[in-house]
Task: structure prediction
Amino acid sequence: MLGQDDAEDVVQDALLSAWRSMASFEGTSFRAWIFRIVTNRALDRLRARRRRPELPLDPPAEDDDAVGWAEPAAPGPELADLAADREALRVVEDALAALPAEQRAVLLLRDVEGFAYEEIATITSTEIGTVKSRIHRGRLAVRNILVSRGWKGSGG
Amino acid sequence: MHPFGDLSAYLDGALSPEARTSVQAHLDTCALCRTRLAELRGTARLIAALPMPVPSRSLVPRVSVPVWMTALRTFSTVASAAAIFLFVVSAVTSSLPRLTSTAGAPAAAPAASAPNAALDQTKGRGAATPTPQSSDERGKLLVPSGASASPGAAFSAASTSPGLTENAPSASDAVRRLDVGSPSPDTSAFSVAERTSIAREQAPFNPFPWLWLVLGVAFAALSFILGRRLRSA
Result:
């Protein structure tokens, strides 16, 4: 996950290059096009940050269910309405930060920005199956962390 | 066999119709999968509820500016345009009367008066002058101009005001009589008359060109100051 300064640098870089290559825009969704540039820049920045860039950002392909569904830990105190709490969002942020960068990017594009799977596949230059798998694994990982913190589930 | 792997895509409405109906059918019978789906939905909602990070600096140069700022900017543009317009107007209004007068008078007057004065000098017709031989050229020129100053004024008055046209012949007669009486030739008297008329046109201070110019400068200063303030803001 990028820090605030890096994130702002990336956005500025991306907007600048988007402005310069405005003529090459030929899609239907300008928003998706911008997000594609921004996402690529952010992932590039993260890769450059890596000490061992040869490592793939995604963990090796595995069966989605192999991750497993963690069972709730012993219910914490007053965590039933964790969703309404600021604490829950902090947990979600931590969980997202622990995700592989490309899972996180795809998950944010889906849940925060509301792009469709096809659009996300275009934005991230991947197959739609990869998008589907990454979204599911990312969401599952966040869910598992929440549950391990005593989250009850459907509360939100 | 639980379709766990499809639950997220089901949640997002990204499944093919047949996969969707099969997951739907399974959900109807499987409480565990309904729980898992609810958890995923809650997770997605939590992610969506994350606070948007606010950039600490402006990444896009002033996409949104306050309303008064845009109004001020428009006003600054209008002021600079007004300054240019008023400057042009002042230039035109101040140069137009001079152009019409200079077209006829000064071009003709020096050409007419100077050779005649030279003629006076060479012919030596200084009978009416007090000191014929000793007085210089300037003194000779002064005498006819002083003598014909009043007829010149009469001429210009007659020519400018149409109500005085009846007096015009008598005035011009007076000029001619005076010219006949005076030793200076007719042309020099006319040139002096024309000169006085020019002086009369220019003499009264016309405030309007200066008014335009001052207004233009004021608007230019206003737009300049506004532009600087807006740029620094």
